[in-house]
## 1
Amino acid sequence: MSKYQVGIIGFGWVAEAHLEALKKVDQFKPYAILSGRQLNSMEFKEKYGVDVKIYNDIDKFLTDKNIDVVDICTPSFLHHEQTIAASNAGKHIILEKPIALSFKDSVKMLKTVRKNRTLTSICFEIRFISSAKAIKSIIDQGLIGEIYNGEVDYYHGIGPWYVNQKWESEKKNGGSSLLRAGCHALDMLLYLMDEKVEEVFTYGNTNPNPVYKNYDYDLNTVTLLKFKNGAIGKVSSNTDCMQPYVFNMNIVGSEGSVKNDLFHSKKIKGLNGWAKLDVDLIDSGDVLNHPYVEQFTHFAECLDKGIETTNNFESAFETHKVIFAADKSAELGRPVKLNEF
């Protein structure tokens, strides 16, 4: 069993969740932290139970030959430059969402990781929760027939009470409702539907509550998707709601449906109503409750074999291409075809 030493870039709320997950995966060893803050390695060990090198200079960090994997947990607007630098330094990459805030930057990143044959794991980690795995398995086995309608919704009030909102309140740093958080829902829909998108149409607005007055972009969007096979979909990305966290999945097929932890199929005799699935739901916006262990375990297995992950950069690029089309649709007030990119 190989041991991969991981260097984390940025150490905040998300990175802390990554660190705790990495400690639970045998193939990974947290090795270094790159931070803009003056962290103390002894205090770090006392708090987190691991010995790490502390860096404040990215060039010195990336030239450390002991680092096999770079885990990027910095603000979104830094992702494209740091991904390109890490890939060019010969490191494999764990990258938090979104991959980038523009289509142009994401194309540069894609070309770089392809050129360098960098293995990647993009943090659409909720693909690895048991409810998502079960729904995907039900679909793949044909138990609900041909999929013709899908809906995945993200409701999470992310306001100025979150530390990262110091920078994410501006569009140049946060991007859009989908980029900042709702990308999880759109990625899940694409993952479950497993079909190329042809066209999108998006409407947007923002909660009129004064607490959101400093945001200069729409925090609530609804995106309609037309798939190439004729199926349709819908994604709500509401990041300014005043309610508990909700992540809703509803996939409808010609022979049945799956809704979160409920399942019905006309292919199963004697099943009259909804059957209850014994699965974990996506019911928390707290990253400490997200299935990073499962995501990182999959990455470690792929590193051992030298193969791509299912949540690799190529897959995330396709999700983000749809997001950029959706944001363009909201801006222009018309449907946008994916072939416009």
## 2
Amino acid sequence: MTAAQRYLIATIFSLTVMVGVGTSTMPPALAAVQRIFGIGPDASGVLLSVFTLPGLVLTPLLGYVADRLGRRAVVVLSLVVFAVGGLAALAAQTFEHLVVVRLVQGIGAASLGALNVALISDFFEGQQRVRLLGFNHSVLSVGTAILPVVSGQLAAFEWRLPFVLPAAGILVAMAIVVFVPPASARAHEAASVGGSVRWRSLGVLLVVSAVTYALLFGPFLNYLQERIARLDPAAPNLYQRIGTMIGTMSVATTLGALFVGRLARRVMLVRMLQTACVLYGLALVLFVVMPSYELLFVPTVVFGLAQAFNQPVVQALVAALAPAMRSATVLSLNRMAALVGQTLGPIAFGVVWRIGGLSTVFIVGAVVAVVCAVAVALVKSPSLESSPQS
């Protein structure tokens, strides 16, 4: 690997860290906002929703523009808007002002979670692409583990500072200009092999992406804490226990994603994705049957491994299904599917909880995961279904 490629990869990974800045920094920041403005968690939660909302519309639109005008222009402009939203937080005096700030940040961040993957797909192919997507997911997992700690320290000093972190996007934008070569839509079209998208396979992958994010934000993030509390209601340090479990999942995801590239040399990507879905189902069942807090670490690690295999493999499959001239558009659809799952997961499993209780949440999630494993068999692509490299 050349020095230019190493700088390129480092720049893309820094862009990936920015993807986590808008969400992972929020838990301490929201607690500070509640204290400053005297509001409850239902009101402060608006700051999460208003950030995610623009992505549902702008992510596919900006992906299409990136295919027409080139990745670099869209990413740099997005980072500048993201950074402006961060700097505007310094002047926030009211909660309503902060809502507007978060909306601007959400507009700037809308394209980042798709275009970082598109850049990897543009410049790397085959097993190297899969390996880098695995590393990219590890970088994101490490960021989501570290950023809340940084945010907490900043919030303790000044409540606005966690909202200012997107201003670092200016530095990343400068690195994009220096280290990411321009690539025009014409060059993408010339490099493409065939112009059609395999829509059935893509549809299955988008559904799987939405469902697995719904499982993450539904049963795992929303209801695992309730499971921990019920196992030992009188146990001290409940919040620390919950944080430790979530951190364990992130560590398992980080470590597992590092080996995705190696596994892809021996196992076809579709089989890896099916394995991830089965692991989701297994973990969710184990959350129900494990009799103690300590034993919950077992399904937590299994769930983390499912995450490690799922997202890099889905991204690699989606990138392989899309013609090069449409890759940003198609990858943006995958990002939008993830946002849909992230948004609807807590709502859907909230209905399940009200109907059947806590155990039903995990069991229904497990059934849905197994159905996804079966559906993935419909994903067909000659370039994907060829024999793995030895």
## 3
Amino acid sequence: MDNNYLNFRKKNENETELYIYGPIEEKTWIDDWFGDGKDKVGAFTLKEALKRVDTPNLTVRINSYGGNVSDGLAIYSLLSEFEGHLKTIVDGFACSAASVIFMAGEERIVPENGLLMIHNAWAEVRGDSNTMQKASEDLAKITQPSLNIYAKKTKLSEQELKEMMDREEWITSQEAYDWGFSTSQERKGEYMQALEADFVHDLVLKNKELQKELKELQQSNSDITQVVKKATKEMFDEQVKKFEQKLLNENQKQKTLEVLDCSSKNQINEDTWVSFFNTKK
């Protein structure tokens, strides 16, 4: 089965391949007018095309930066309802809405040079503070279904996933497998990989290495800071103890002098009285 728009290909009587190698959105009349959008994949058109799949196995191969949240969620639902065996493969990137589509697979493969990227839904908004607040609340609700899908299919908690989406996380093949986004890293057959994807993949890995080194350095600095703080506190405490001991000694010395002084005065008074009475005699 060949389709230039949806890139369907029937490999044999057992398997059909679907290539999602472009934006996740419906083709519009503007695209038709200018002859663009041939690589777009929309939910409505996919729905009609899936009816023609007559093989027990469907493999969806993805290399997409994503697109509309609504189309991504709808395609996820359509693929999830496929009655045969569904396999999803990342040939390059599966970003944003494309990563949601990837999660539809019963068998999910991110090869060693594939990447996922997850983030929150976003939009361009104009208006006053009420409009902005409403938009913020709406975007949180629009993001939630994708978050639910990741939480259902992976080993991560909703809170962990939310933090990853907040920072727009790039996920490597090993991370995808460890966290449960993929079920395998195994490569079978030919997997397409664009030079751009290779380049970005290398950048992501280098960035993650730098982040790890920075975190270790921060931890090391934190440990050094704690040691310095502890040593400083111990030195301070020691000085305080010495000062207190000095004060104690000074107080004790002062008390001793006062006692001696008092004793001396008493003795003088006593000698005076004795002398007085002796004189009278």
